[in-house]
Amino acid sequence: MNHIKAADIQKKLNTLDLIILPEIANDIPVTPEHNIWFPGQGSRTYPGEFSRITTYADIIEIIRLWVEEKLRKSYDLHPEEEEGLLYEILVALLTECKLSETDPLIAPPDNWWSQIAINAREEEFPFELIGFIESRDARRILFRIIPALLDIECDQLMKQMDLQLPDRSSVVTPGWVKHYMKGDRHTQSWIYHSSSGKGYFLVLFTRGCQHAKCAGCNLHLLGCREKISSELINRQVETALCRELLDSEKREIKEIVLSNNGSIFDESTLPTASLLYFVSKASHELPNLKKIILETRVEPVDIILLEKIKETLEFDGKNIQVELAVGVEIFDDEARNKYYKKGLRIEQLQELAKELGDLGIKLRCYMMYKPLPGMTREEADEDIAKAVDYFSRLSKDHNIDLTIHINPTFVAIGTKLAEAFEKGEYSPPDLSDLRKLVLSFEGSSINIYVGINDEGLAVPGGSFIKSGCEKDLDRFKKFNFTGDFQYLK
What we know:
By secondary structure, the chain is an alpha/beta fold. The protein is built from 18 helices and eight strands.
């Protein structure tokens, strides 16, 4: 299809043959039976005037009608301006983008996504798309519905309308995974920002973590009970790297994280062939990639495999740094293993750091801030401070580039920590306390990064993201992007 115009989209949508009324409500009314009122059907008080959503086209038409009415109420535009802005806003709504020149911001009702999912579940509707709607995965929705609706690829439409896809991660819970996940689909992927530039976080759907004992972690519940073949895992990689990134995004990505919510070096969950396939595919698809970060537990790390990964990158002629990301969680040995059930000895970290230093591979250690019931803020501060001091010395002793990744703890669904939270024995940390702690490490010889994503896995009220923390979230985002402690002051 040649350069798409607003008129082309209008013609496509007009085939739906629905009537546009001059006045519609700000929200789209829904009955208790989950029927939805279409503008143009007459009185909303008469039950016979309600219809169910039966096709994707119905969804698009409702959005379009709602946007048109909002447009008329909010802007004084010439007819030729109205048409162009209308469809820019339509795409912005679908992508959840904020248009810098749109004031006030136009956004759908709060219950929009969930309501579509409720209606769609009972009708003829693509099962995969329902899952993406329920997880609020606007990116993956658009890559599927734009070609179906407009006969144009998502990449082409974004270029022509000068829009970007949303960066945020989808909301994936154990129940969602059990109901919607298939072996040929990756669990999640999202774009994030770091001091080195844009990054891409890819979570593969594989057999779940085989340790599955950590007191505050439920990531093993996001995996599969059975092994998934290398053929299906390779399809996940192909989709995530080749089909669900815009060309412009591929050029911007400087680092990529590979995870399977467990250990990507555990061959019982991720075959070696698939890991090497990912490394080669990433190096070819992302032309400006500078770093590959591999998440794993310490025990299954294979030095010979690490050498193969480096050889693969060198054979492809790519100068890409490799980094291992391992979970330490708590520095104190007794707290880490007796109470948190991590099953990690500090000696294992020392041995790994020496081997990685010899290979020129970086190390990232995940630490948790206030991860146990009964732990005070002072104890949490002290544990992180001891970790920073220890890892600073470890970095110097073994000449290894080391990053401490500090994650404020959230109360994950289905964990021992959640049980303590329900009994009133635990409360999540305050970001203001963490900000003061991180600021005290200014001048440290190692890199520090702060995780500010609860991944949608927190029980109600159990997240560190709460009312009043917006400024601290923004400060941490800027700190992570620049590495500049001034943003925390």
